[in-house]
Amino acid sequence: IMALARSVGLLALLVSVQGLTREQLFDYGIRVGDKILDSGTDSVRELELEQTLFFFKGKFDKVYVNTNGFISLAEPTGESEYLGKMPASFGMIAAFLGDLDTTDGAGYVYFRQDKSPDVLQRVAEHISQAFPSDDEIEPTHAIIVTWENVAPQGERGPGGEYRNTFQVVVANMESASYAILLYPEENMQFGSTLIDDEDQPVEVGFNEGKVPGWFSWGSTQGTYYRITEDSEESINALAQETNSGRPGVWVYEIGTSPLFTSITPGEVTEVTEVTEVTEVTSVETVVESLVPEPSVPWIRHHEDLLTSEAPYEPLATSPEPFGESSTPDEPQHRYRYVQPQQPQNPQVLIIDEDELNVDVFSYNYETCSSNKHKCSVFADCRDYADGYCCHCKPGYYGNGKDCIAEGKPQRMNGKVSGRIYVGDSPSPVEFSNNDLHSYVVTNDGRAYIAISSIPSSIGPSLQPLPALGEAIGWAFALQQPDYRNGFSIIGGVFTRQAEVVFQPGNERLTIRQEFSGIDEHDHLLISTELDGRIPEVPQGATVQIEPYREIYQYSSSLITSSSRRDYTVNMPDGSVRTHSYLWTQSIKFQSCPHEEVLSAVPASQQLSVDQIFVMYDSGNQLIRFAMSNKIGSIHSGIPEQNPCFTGRHGCDTNAVCRPAQGKDFSCECASGFTGDGRVCYETERPVDHCQRGTHDCDAPERSRCSYTGDSSYICSCLPGFSGDGRACQGNQTHIKYRSNKTACERHREAAQASSSSGGFFFRPRPAVGQYVPSCDAYGAYEPLQCHASAGQCWCVDSSGLEIPGSRAQPGSRPMCIDHSVAPPLIGPTPKADISPLTPGANLLFSQSGKIDHIPLDGNRMIKDEAKTVLHVPGKVVIAVAFDCVEQMIFWSDITQPSISRATLQGGETSLLISTDLGCPEGIAIDHMSRNMYWTDSILDRIEVSRLDGSQRRVLFDDDLINPRPIIADPAYGYLYWSDWNRDGPKIERSGLDGSDRTVLVQDGLGLPNALTFDPQSRRLCWADAGTRKVECIDPFSRLRRKLTEGIQYPFAIVSYGRNLYYTDWRRDAVVAMDRHDGMEVEEFLPQRRSRTYGIAITYPQCPAGVNYCSRDNGGCSHLCLPRPGGFTCRCPDARDGSCVEQDQNF
């Protein structure tokens, strides 16, 4: 394309939307075992089902196939009672409901049940394509009904010219059913039939029929979910449009068990396109892809596409320049973008580079020896004849100065400022450092954006503008073979300027964004400036944005794109309005001039954006956007089917999908994570121990520590000393002084000299209120730093940077890590008289390497007072529990499997159990009996011990696959746990002694990760990452209640007061929800954004109550284990001969 653009040609893209053909229906006919319905105008055949069908709220074991284009769930009445009189009194799946005729011998109705693997696989693909976010689509049974060459009865006559062929496939799974409706375009020739001598459009939809009334008094008409309307356009759309990604194919979820809310349509309305390429010999003319002619009403014929000249004119002016060019040897032409006039058709455009003044930044023309530090720690530096370049290491991608691990999710944080006028308002809405947060799952291209503190005066009107944060979608879009997303090409430092022109009002908005690279938390930083006017969207209105495609064009320092985007506003009064806007943008970036970085990148790439979701949350003053992004060819063709390129692979969000032959693939945990690829856990990142000061080399006046990559280093003795670098001997008088000052010493001298008079008669001293760092004897930063004037102290790392959450109040001193030794477990405070927790209840939650706490004020989280109470460097803390008697925190680590505890009062830590552990993921404390229980998801067992880790005993080691959460109810003697085994998830209960084990919940579970028990209401609640629901059950009456659905990925949950608090892997947050109405009431986002794991409540005093083991250990010699109505004395597995086992009942 670049060569053509610089000479005489340009490519014209001819896009043809391919409809469904008869050959693409599911196989049907006698040869595949179909039965044939009797010919007639109202024939019916009963079909006994081999598997239950779920329809609305009911379950059905038989269906009835009818000539008139439907399947019914009960024996249908005569056609005179439902044709033209819908909704009918019986349940119905109406694929094409009308008065149809098969009496002339040319039309047939075929039907069968099918469980063959190839049919079920194809069914699963249709459903997965329509519902790309749904996992584990595994149909086990299908009903296939095909109406072939059926005619409209009475109007055309036998042998008439109008015939229709269509098909419905009902797919059944263990707890859900789906309907797939298929309409081959060239075989749909009529859309109405004669009913009572009137021409009436056919109907398509799902009718529930009569349902029992309240208290079983009589019956009422159920729901009629109608797909078509009484219009020709609506009927034509059956073969031309889609909700599953393929024209003529429509997918709906029609029933679920045990709970059903509504018929759910497929989510993918983007149409597959096929592109042909033709050369056009015009240098400055822009040629667009053409749209097929509108279909003939009621009859849709496939026509060949003809080329025509595009109705576009070149731009008269170039995009706004960024500065003067500093590279005289750059190419003479670039592409010019023209604002498009048609929404569906990407353009290839030319721009004359002479009209652009682009400031191309350059690398320092030096060598790697003096510039290697400017490369990412995950990059290699490479020397060239006239300079150097940085290149990301294998397993990472970026521009070499910014590199991130393949497969790892990415976050973007920033601020939004500026002003926007809304509608005709004479006064703007001001933005002043509003928070912008974005998150993208890089292995499937899903991006989420949220902007906070958006007042209701402008919130609804921002809904059409996901462009405010969509740059991260382009930067980390799912890459198709041989194509690269933005970050892999230009890294994270660039500027972006965009202009939005709304139609028809011509309102204009300018968006300027500065991307500042990846910070120390691996977040991409951005600042945004807004200026202009946007159309008003009324309060209460919602916005739907249509999928779009946008062509990005690349040169050595500039990327540009343009598109037209359509959106629909659903007004509060029920009316619908369609609008659009024109979008142009320029992205300026730095490239390495010593290697042709862009040589392997196509000059033009297409960004495809679909599944767009927008919402203004007036209660929290948040505007939210979500979308799915792919980067690939500008030429449409057969879509890639490998799950790595569709995004439907099931790999962990911290894993990279590796494609293989055909549809085969593998999941590989991203760098910094470990696991099987389906589930990945965070591991320790590479650490520069020399810089951090955590090496074991000798003192710096005798030895040098040299970082060699990853987490490795070497020690070597300085001149005048001998040894292995870890122990150096020699005459220290030869080196009385260090030749170079350390960073801490330079920092200290600068602070002391900041207010000095400069004369040599005065010793430098700091200004009043000036902070002066403390350095140790070797010039390193002291781990504890204090500000004398402010009276505050905090911990710093080896670079002198404050450790978040470590700053103590005046008069208090936190415990800090000594950088000169390997990091120990660090408790919350060094003195028994300093309590790090706020009086009252607190939430404890874990992230990798630490446990934080959030004080609670009643049911409200005091977010400003959240801080870290326990640092566990290099560990992955999963489970967290609390003993209210001794005020101790218990936690589990899975890197070197262990269970530990620390007292909140003295900061002392104890390793309790470190042997015979696989993966301890859940801990429960019986504070009354002084026992601890835990689950092990690798050894597949549940164990118990005393709180000090002694007297271990295996409670269960059978019928467990993936046990995780475990809860003790010491007052009543019960133990609860869940097993998230994907093939058979369940929630179980037993006595605390292991007696009376029983399954409480087994139906309707997916991944029940989180479990909690409220002793006040006696309710057991769980959060399910598979069904994305929070539910509760009374363990005694077995009454079950759904609190909410649509949550993200819960890991752990705890109950306190009227709220449930849970940690969420997708949101990296602690979320509070009301346990009475299921509404989310609050969210806490930790300063360090990484996965949140276990969660627990600390009580200022224990809840009242005793059990049979509370006093004198129940008289047992070893373990006293309560149960309902008694207790059991049990021996540990390692017996010493003095143990006596006995049961006591009361």
TrEMBL record:
Alphabetized UniProt keyword annotations: Basement membrane, Calcium, Cell adhesion, Disulfide bond, EGF-like domain, Extracellular matrix, Glycoprotein, Repeat, Secreted, Signal
Secreted keyword on record: yes
LDL-receptor class B-type repeats, residues: 887-929, 930-972, 973-1017
Coiled coil start-end: none
Disulfide bonds: 786-793
Gene Ontology terms, MF aspect: Wnt receptor activity; Wnt-protein binding
Pfam families for the chain: EGF_3, FXa_inhibition, G2F, Ldl_recept_b, NIDO, Thyroglobulin_1
Record protein name field: Nidogen 1b
